[in-house]
Amino acid sequence: MACSRLSDRSLLRLCWRSARTGMAAQDRRMSTDKRSLTVEAGPEQVQIVKQQEQNEEVQQYTELVRDFLDPAHFYRSVRNIGIDFFCGVPDSLLKNFCAYVTAQTDRRKHVITANEGSAVALAAGYHMATKKYAMVYLQNSGLGNCINPLTSLTPPQVYSLPMLLLVGWRGEPGKRDEPQHVHKGYITPGLLATAGIPFQVLPDYEEGAEQALFDAQQHMKKANSPYALLVRRQTFLSYKLPKREELYQLTREEAVQTIAGVLNDYDIVVATTGMLSRELFEYRAKNKHGHERDFLTVGSMGHASAIALGIAVSKPSRQVWCFDGDGSLLMHLGSLATVGETAPVNFKHVVINNEAHDSVGGQPTAAHHGTFDIPAVARDCGYQEAFTAVTHDEILAGIDRLKRLTGPVLLEIKVNKGSRQDLGRPTRSPQENKQDFMKFLSK
User: Fold this and answer.
1) Predicted local distance difference test score (pLDDT) of residue 60
2) CB of 98 within 8 A of CB of 91?
């Protein structure tokens, strides 16, 4: 039973009990039918197929069966409780469901927002206009972005606005994950409980998922406030968006290598979260450059430019390069105005734009619209100059130009989406990265 009384002093205890109940329910299977899976054989898909084969072997031991939700079935079940509007920021644990929503939902009923707080506000507006519930999907790291509207807009004590939160649970206790997710995963249930949001773990089998959605529907009807479903790793079967036509000459990794190869040894680099930092780390390792000059922003999506700004104003004699992405830039676009107003002459901003949330399923960002002009926005925010490059030669010319210009200046590089299947992860911890980086800054 999910927790539902927001005024109860034991809300946190009840919510934790709900989470444990949901976890236990996932381990009791009433059905062992094997679902077919027709997908590209990536590591995730191979693991799913192996698990399905194990399900066949342990048939009578239902406690050992591991199921997977079909994104299509879950989508229909969500629609069956009256939800027809979807918004949020894609997540790696939700990527298969998010991809299905992107493919199947009318654009007027599905909005990929710049950040999670905006998605909560959007869902609130939709409810007031239609009296219907919206689904807000996000990674649990995005709870930080939406705590403000979830505690000052939606609660019963304020406007009492219901919505269903579908939250990818990165860093779930007992699961291996990257350092930036482990702490957030541990505090996620408590964070929801403290915010007064009842929740349960989404079961990975159809009957359980339908019951969880029924619980959510009943809560939203009675309490007129948000309800959350936590999604564990590998809950959904695979679903991929059609591969987009390659529009540009380079990949992000090729662009990163081109830029990193022509910077000065004394230059400072702040790289955004996701694949970009991993590609930069591998490039340094391959060329035996060392990693001390790069700060890899493994979490805190959207904040790389602000970190770089703090360094630039403190180290005015050194050039500070921010390697950004379109998704991270959009998440906290206001930082452009802060950089423009502060106007550090040594601030060099490179935005690698693949028009997609590449590391979490490839769903489009707002930058894929032909009318969205990143250099124009930067100039209007006070950047001295901003321009675009597409080819290898244009990138080299653009970086040379940035070196000579007085900042803040910006170079947008348009690339194809996608990354190598065998792309590794940094082998140095965030603490080691910080210590090496601070020594480099002190030189």
Assistant:
1) 60
2) yes
The residue behind tokens 């059905």 is 31
Write the CB contacts of 373 (distance below 8 Å, at least 6 apart in sequence).
Answer: none
What is the phi/psi pair of residue 389, to 5°?
-130, 150
312, 338 contact by CB (below 8 A):
no
- Contact 71/237 with Cβ under 8 angstroms? yes
End-to-end CA distance of the chain: 58
Please enumerate in sequence order all residues whose Cβ is within 8 A of that of 299, keeping only pairs 6 or more positions apart, or say none: 141, 180, 181, 184, 273
Separation of alpha carbons 349 and 413, rounded Å: 11
- Containing H/E element for 200? strand 199-201
CA distance 372 to 366: 7
Q: What percent of the chain has pLDDT over 90?
A: 72
Give the DSSP letter of residue 391: S
Please state the separation of Cα 437 from the chain's center in Å.
Answer: 25
Over range 175-201, report the average pLDDT.
Answer: 94
What CA–CA distance (Å, rounded) separates 97 from 99?
5
84-142 per-position pLDDT tens digit: 999 999 999 999 999 999 999 999 999 999 999 999 999 999 999 999 999 999 999 99
The encoded tokens of residue 293 equal 């000059």
Q: Return the pLDDT at 86.
A: 98
What average pLDDT does the chain have? 88
Give the separation between CA 259 and CA 425, rounded to whole angstroms. Answer: 20
Residue 17 has pLDDT above 50, yes or no: no
Cα 435 to its chain centre, rounded Å, is 26
Q: Which residues pair with 376 in a beta bridge?
A: none
Question: Which helix H or strand E contains 228, and what residues bound it?
Answer: strand 227-231
Give the span between the Cα atoms of 260 and 258, in whole angstroms: 6
Q: Could you tell me which of 147, 140, 141, 172 has the C-alpha nearest to residue 226?
A: 147
Residues in a beta bridge with 410: 349, 386
Kindly state the DSSP code that residue 352 receives in the 8-state scheme. E
Band the pLDDT of 151: cuts 50, 70, 90: very high
3-state secondary structure of 321: strand
∠174-179-183 over CA atoms, to 5°? 65
Does the bond joining 408 to the residue before it have cis omega, within 30 degrees of 0?
yes
Whose tokens are 């244009």? That residue is 394
Q: Provide the 10 A C-beta neighbour count for residue 234.
A: 17
The reported pLDDT for the residue numbered 225 is: 97
Residue 24 has pLDDT above 70, yes or no: no
